[in-house]
Amino acid sequence: MQSDLFKAPAEVTAPRPQNIQDMFGLTRQVWLEDCRAAAKQLLQTRESVTVEDVLLLQPRPEFIHRNATGSIFSNGEFKSVGWTQSKRPQSKGRYIMQWRLK
Predict the structure, then answer these.
(1) pLDDT at res. 46
(2) How far is residue 93 CA from its own chain's centroid?
(3) What is the pTM of this model?
(4) What angle do CA 30, 20, 22 make, to 5 degrees?
(5) What is the CA radius of gyration of the chain?
(6) Which end of the chain has the lower number of beta carbons within 10 A, N or C?
(7) How far is Cα 62 from Cα 95, in angstroms, rounded to an integer?
């Protein structure tokens, strides 16, 4: 019989990744939530934000695919309010969306 000393508290027994894909999926979700919090923080001092503004505060980890960046504003809390040109040289001036809270 195992002693209670070795049992994890209930708070710690939250969903654990079953494999490496689960681990990266959980990490992706945490990163997205951090990005959304950064966007909300920026919106306290300005009218709108872009994905570039958010990525300056919360850079995307290399192991998270770049397409995941598109999910930052897709949780229903934000609305698109226009377009602006990208400031990143690799984007070559393409237009990116501006966002606000709903």
Answers:
(1) 96
(2) 23
(3) 0.73
(4) 45
(5) 18
(6) N
(7) 24
Q: In a 10 Å sphere around its CB, with 0-12 CB exposed, 13-18 middle and 19+ buried, how is residue 14 labelled?
A: exposed
Three-state SS for the chain is: CCCHHHCCCHHHHCCCCCCHHHHHHHHHHHHHHHHHHHHHHHCCCCCCECHHHHHHHCCCCCCCCHHHHHHCCCCCCEEEEEEEECCCHHHCCCEEEEEEEC
Give pLDDT tens digits for 40-98: 999 999 999 999 999 999 999 888 888 989 899 999 999 999 999 999 888 898 999 99
- Matching residue, tokens 């681990």: 23
Structure tokens at 57: 């505060």
Alpha-carbon distance 77 to 79, whole Å? Answer: 7
The distance from CA 77 to its chain's CA centroid, rounded to whole angstroms, is 13
